[in-house]
Design a protein that fits this description.
Layout (H helix, E strand, L loop, with lengths): L1 H18 L3 E2 L2 E6 L19 E3 L5 E10 L2 E6 L8 E7 L6 E8 L11 E6 L3 E8 L6 E3 L1 E6 L3 H27 L1
Antiparallel strand pairs: 1-11, 2-4, 3-10, 4-9, 5-8, 5-11, 6-7, 6-9
Helix pairs in contact: 1-2
Length: 181
């Protein structure tokens, strides 16, 4: 019985760990304005310090995740090259109507290399597209990568609770048997 419970807990933890992976933007839907010679596709994939610097105030970059995403956390990997800049972050399900999730977001200072500097933004609605609207022209807002982490489903928490209750019950049962001897 104990081995079965341990095996179930290991499987649940492995499944939860696997679902905790980050999804990165898959393609550039649109780009307006200019950048410092960087191709906007440099903002795709995992952080690698190949950035796009949006230098036009009012310029936009729309990234497509390639699938609908539920509520969770956007991680915006940025790099501030000594001159902080800001952007507005918006999300959309259809690339037509956008909702602001961060009215002003500043690019961040941090080490060059892992762990990469980033800012987390909570998103409470389904979306597929993320739009960055540059609020300043010089210096520009720097984007290295944009990732998404889903919030665990409520069933995950209830499953973990059941596992904790079962483990406690087995422990109490063993104590009673040991005390009776």
């Amino acid at each position: 019985m104990k081995r079965v419970l341990i095996a179930c807990c290991v499987v649940l933890l492995a499944a939860e760990e696997a679902s905790a992976g980050m999804i990165f933007a898959a393609s550039v839907h649109s780009f307006s304005g200019s950048s410092t010679g960087d191709d906007p596709t440099l903002s795709l994939g995992a952080p690698d310090l190949r950035i796009i610097q949006m230098v036009d105030g009012g310029g936009t970059l729309v990234l497509d995740f390639g699938m609908m995403l539920s509520a969770g956390t956007l991680s915006i990997f940025t790099y501030d090259d000594l001159f902080p800049a800001s952007a507005r972050v918006e999300v959309s399900a259809d690339a037509d109507i956008f909702t602001v999730v961060a009215p002003i977001l500043w690019d961040t200072n941090g080490p060059i290399g892992p762990p990469f500097p980033h800012v987390d933004v909570a998103v409470g609605m389904p979306f597929r597209y993320v739009r960055f609207y540059s609020l300043e022209s010089d210096p520009g807002f720097d984007i290295d990568a944009v990732g998404f982490s889903a919030l665990p489903e409520p069933s995950t928490f209830s499953t973990c609770d059941l596992g904790a209750i079962a483990t406690t019950a087995v422990g109490l049962r063993r104590r009673r048997r040991a005390a009776a001897r």
